[in-house]
Amino acid sequence: MPTREQFEDAVFNKHFFAHISFKPNKQFADTEGQMFKHELCAKNDKGEYYREDVSAMWYGWNLYKKLLEKES
Fold first, then answer.
1. What is the distance between the alpha carbons of residues 58 and 7, in angstroms, rounded to a whole number?
2. Looking at beta carbons, which pairs linking 55-59 to residues 24 or more positions away fall under 8 Å?
3. CA 41 to CA 46: how far, in whole Å?
4. Which of 40, 49, 53, 70 is 20 to 30 A distant from 8 in Cα terms?
């Protein structure tokens, strides 16, 4: 069954790769707008995500888990 950690890894990876752009005149990739995983997936004391987009994805992730449980 997918875990919360797997969810956060997937969200972070998607965000990370979406914000990388390679510019020929730069030695390294431009990561403007990038943030660390703990910033992107920050939660309050109740375990709720601060970012609405991550919170919405977490809701969908849990619906998916329920679907998997029903199928097994």
1. 7
2. 57/7, 57/11, 58/4, 58/7
3. 13
4. 70
H-only helix segments in the chain: 4-18, 37-40, 52-71
Residue that has been written with the tokens 């199928």 in this structure: 71
Spatial CA neighbour of 61 closest among 49, 72, 50:
49
* Per-residue tokens: 16: 């990370």
Q: How far apart are CA 20 and CA 67, in angstroms?
A: 33
Residues 31 and 33: their CA atoms lie apart, in Å, by 6
Query: Residue 30's pLDDT is what?
Result: 53
Q: What residues form DSSP beta bridges with 30?
A: 21
